[in-house]
């Protein structure tokens, strides 16, 4: 019997008992749909995290001061005032470092016309754009000139600009930061990302302006270091440690007074956790696929019982055991594949819906579909072959006598 | 005389059910020649159906030799037996044994599927067979939509459609009223006249009269 004949026979058989076929497929439909949907949810979150990871800055190492052992903030991480602008200059000379941007931060009220907001003011240099992966939307970023002169110029984050009611034509106008007038020279491109880590609510000004207007001294909160290539991250981090230790005069055996963190690595870990979670969920969902398979096996066994006489007749008119085996196997396969196809359809609709709500859009991986289809075939064969064998091995005479 | 189509020697069939062995056939010798119309007659339980199952290659004898169309059946494996059933044998059963929920046309075409014939040819041959039996206007009917006599004629069409060497009919009139039964017997006559070998199994002596030759079976033995 040709494959074509077998499929036609199976389809006509399923047509004649539609409700039963539909109920039998339900288990596979639910299983495949949830696997597809959950894998897509996992990919969606991973994709969201990856986007954020990139927006943080490529190949970014962040150097923070260590914990102060005395003073008002003693014991708090990052409380030490050991990092200086000169440290930043020194780090820029390390081989493999592409750019270095010191950061000084202060929280200040910002006023533009009648609107005002309070946000973080970051004093930094022109290199910040490269280090933190910022792109300008309107106007321009800080330049070596603005840095050197410590001009009172400001680049607004997208959210801050919106909060202040400032649009494209705001470039060139004045705003007040902590009561002091600053000129807006640019507005940044929005990065998006979670509300947890909104990088769009900030004002960037030359580091000298922050030091002269808001915080004195030479210490900085953070030094962002952009490394030329990913595989140099480790080497550069070690070089930074050596440089800073010698500059700070730390004796061998004494702990560092600074902390280097690799944010990409951190987020990579978060992302792999979310992938793991998705795989776990998909694993749980595939249990329902197994349950669906057992449903198919159950119905096929009942079907073999009910159709014992039919099997006897078919053997009498010339069917080989193989023909009977294939007939029932193809029937089970048709059930599981049809269920799988419907399940994939529902799963894709679900992923599109969830993606819409969660905001990562429609995530679709053809590999998932292949795996889901493969699973359906496996379920059909695995749970169809035993009933089919039972059918094929029936003694034709006993089958013909069967009432 | 024509060549023997069926040649059976010392054939026996013992059913082993639990501890009791039932000898349904004992030492049967039988020769049926090509083109013969033979009736196998005997009371209920005498072993007629058992004999037909063996002749039709649905079952294997416990002992003895069976040569069908020159082939020693004992040497064949299950696939080869299926091939013999498919090519050389047409069955007609008392209870018709049509495939449920399939049209008369599909039923008659079914044996041809197992010969690997394409759909178009199958349907053409099935239609011709049904038309020959006067069922040209019942092609789309399912078994439940046909009378007993019509169902048996569909079954005969199905047995004929493969042009088998031999037709085995087990009580083909058993479920029919006398008019339909007579019609079926008349059909078998016609088929015999057109050269087909027919084995008719019945417990009814009157029905057996239709055949050229009668073989009496009693308690699993051929009686004189
Ligand atoms: N599968 C079986 N297992 C055990 N015994 C069986 C089996 N089939 C038939 N028999 C026994 O074999 C004997 C012959 O049975 P068979 O069906 O061949 O008779 P029959 O001549 O066709 O009778 P009937 O005219 O009633 O159809 C009977 O005694 C029956 O009980
Ligand atoms: Mg019988």
Explain how this protein is built:
The complex is a heterodimer of chains A (403) and B (224). Chain A is built from 13 helices and ten strands. Chain A is of the alpha+beta class and 403 residues long. Chain A has two domains: 183 residues, no CATH class; 174 residues, no CATH class. In chain A, helix 9 packs parallel to helix 12. Chain B has 224 residues and is of the alpha/beta class. Chain B has a single domain, classed as P-loop containing nucleotide triphosphate hydrolases (Rossmann fold, 3-Layer(aba) Sandwich). Chain B is built from seven helices and ten strands. The longest helix of chain B is centred in the last third of the chain and has 16 residues. Chain B starts with a strand and ends with a strand. Chains A and B meet through helix 10, helix 11 and helix 13 of A and helix 2 and helix 3 of B. Adenosine-5'-triphosphate binds next to strand 1, strand 2 and helix 1 of chain B.
Helix content of chain A: 40-55%
Low-confidence stretches of chain B: none
Please list the strands of the largest sheet of chain A in the order they lie side by side.
Answer: 2-3-8-5-7-6
Structural class of chain A: alpha+beta
Give the proportion of residues in helices of chain B: 25-40%
Structural class label of chain B: alpha/beta
Question: What's a quick, concise take on this entry?
Answer:
The complex is a heterodimer of chains A (403) and B (224). Chain A is of the alpha+beta class and 403 residues long. In chain A, 55% of the residues lie in helices and 17% in strands.
Can you give keywords for this protein?
heterodimer, A: 403 residues, 2 domains, elongated, B: alpha/beta, Rossmann fold, binds adenosine-5'-triphosphate, binds magnesium ion
């Amino acid at each position: 019997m040709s494959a074509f004949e077998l499929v036609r026979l199976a389809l006509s058989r399923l047509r004649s008992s539609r409700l039963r076929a539909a109920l039998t497929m339900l288990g596979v439909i639910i299983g495949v749909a949830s696997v597809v949907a959950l894998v897509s949810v996992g990919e969606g979150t991973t994709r969201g995290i990856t986007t954020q990871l990139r927006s943080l800055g490529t190949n970014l190492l962040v150097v923070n001061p260590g914990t102060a052992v005395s003073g008002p903030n003693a014991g708090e991480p990052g409380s030490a005032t050991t990092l200086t602008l000169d440290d930043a200059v020194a780090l820029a000379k390390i081989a493999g470092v592409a750019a270095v941007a010191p950061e000084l931060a202060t929280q200040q009220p910002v006023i533009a016309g009648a609107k005002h907001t309070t946000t973080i003011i970051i004093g930094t240099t022109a290199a910040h754009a490269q280090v933190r992966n910022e792109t300008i939307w309107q106007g321009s970023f800080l330049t070596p000139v603005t840095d050197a002169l410590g001009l009172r110029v400001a680049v607004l984050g997208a959210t801050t600009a919106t909060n202040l009611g400032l649009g494209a034509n705001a470039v060139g106008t004045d705003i007040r930061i902590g009561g002091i007038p600053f000129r807006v020279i640019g507005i940044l491109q929005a990065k998006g990302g979670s509300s947890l880590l909104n990088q769009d609510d900030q004002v960037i000004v030359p580091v000298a302006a922050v030091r002269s207007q808001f915080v004195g001294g030479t210490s900085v909160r953070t030094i962002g270091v952009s490394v030329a290539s990913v595989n140099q991250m480790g080497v550069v981090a070690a070089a930074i440690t050596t440089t800073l230790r010698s500059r700070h005069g730390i004796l061998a055996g004494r702990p560092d007074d600074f902390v280097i963190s690799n944010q990409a690595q951190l987020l990579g870990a978060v992302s792999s956790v979310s992938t793991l979670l998705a795989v776990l969920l998909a694993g749980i969902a595939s249990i329902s696929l197994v349950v669906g398979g057992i449903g198919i096996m159950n119905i096929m066994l009942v079907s073999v019982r009910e159709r014992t006489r039919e099997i006897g007749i078919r053997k009498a008119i010339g069917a080989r055991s193989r023909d009977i085996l294939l007939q029932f196997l193809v029937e089970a396969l048709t059930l599981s594949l049809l269920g799988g196809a419907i399940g994939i359809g529902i799963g894709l609709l679900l992923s599109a819906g969830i993606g819409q709500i969660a905001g990562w859009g429609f995530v679709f991986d053809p590999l998932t579909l292949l795996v889901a289809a493969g699973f359906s075939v496996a379920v059909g064969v695995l749970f169809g072959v035993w009933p089919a064998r039972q059918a094929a091995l029936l003694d034709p005479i006993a089958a013909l006598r069967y009432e | 005389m024509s060549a023997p189509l069926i040649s059976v020697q010392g054939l026996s069939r013992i059913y082993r059910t639990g501890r009791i062995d039932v000898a349904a056939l004992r030492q049967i010798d039988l020769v049926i020649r090509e083109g013969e119309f033979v009736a196998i007659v005997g009371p209920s339980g005498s072993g007629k159906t058992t004999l037909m199952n063996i002749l039709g290659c649905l079952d294997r004898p416990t002992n003895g030799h069976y040569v069908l169309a020159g082939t020693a059946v004992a040497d064949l494996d299950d696939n080869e037996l299926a091939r013999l059933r498919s090519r050389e044998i047409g069955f007609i059963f008392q209870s018709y044994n049509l495939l449920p929920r399939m049209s008369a046309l599909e039923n008659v075409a079914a044996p041809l599927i197992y010969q690997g014939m394409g759909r178009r040819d199958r349907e053409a041959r099935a239609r011709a067979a049904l038309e020959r039996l006067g069922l040209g206007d019942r092609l789309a009917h399912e078994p439940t939509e046909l009378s007993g006599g019509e169902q048996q004629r569909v079954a005969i069409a199905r047995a004929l459609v493969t042009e088998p060497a031999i037709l085995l009919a087990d009580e083909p009139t058993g479920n029919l009223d006398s008019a339909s039964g007579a019609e079926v017997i008349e059909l078998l006559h016609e088929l015999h006249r057109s050269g087909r070998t027919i084995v008719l199994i019945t417990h009814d002596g009157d029905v057996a009269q239709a055949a050229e030759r009668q073989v009496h079976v009693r308690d699993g033995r051929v009686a004189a």
